[in-house]
Amino acid sequence: MYNYILLMKSKSQILLYIFETILTKKSINMNSVVAEFNILERTFRRYIADINAYFCNQYKNYSIVYQRKINMYCLVVD
Q: Which end of the chain is more exposed for a tag (fewer CB within 10 A), N or C?
């Protein structure tokens, strides 16, 4: 049981992973994050919304948008 607890990631760790990945790679695939962290798609979308809210307050020209053609969430800089 103890090892299982070590493998679990907290909300803040997952949010920071998504944030870092978006900033460095400019895009992220929802399915890979959902599978890696064992979270729901709805949870992933909520985390993206949280990061977008942060961008709105701190980096006004940054936003994350879903690109249907490539099935990725991408960083857009205006």
A: N
Contacts of 68 (CB under 8 A, 6+ apart): none
Q: What whole-number distance in Å separates Cα of residue 55 and Cα of residue 60? A: 6
Strand partners, 28: 73
Integer Cα distance of 19 and 73 in angstroms: 11
74 strand-pairing partners: 27, 65
The residue with tokens 């809210």 is 53
18 CB neighbour count, 10 Å cutoff: 21
CB–CB of 13/61 below 8 Å?
A: no
Cβ–Cβ under 8 Å, residues 61 and 32: no
Q: How confident is the model at residue 7 (pLDDT cuts 50, 70, 90)?
A: low
Strands of the sheet with 27-28, listed across from one edge: 27-28, 72-77, 62-67
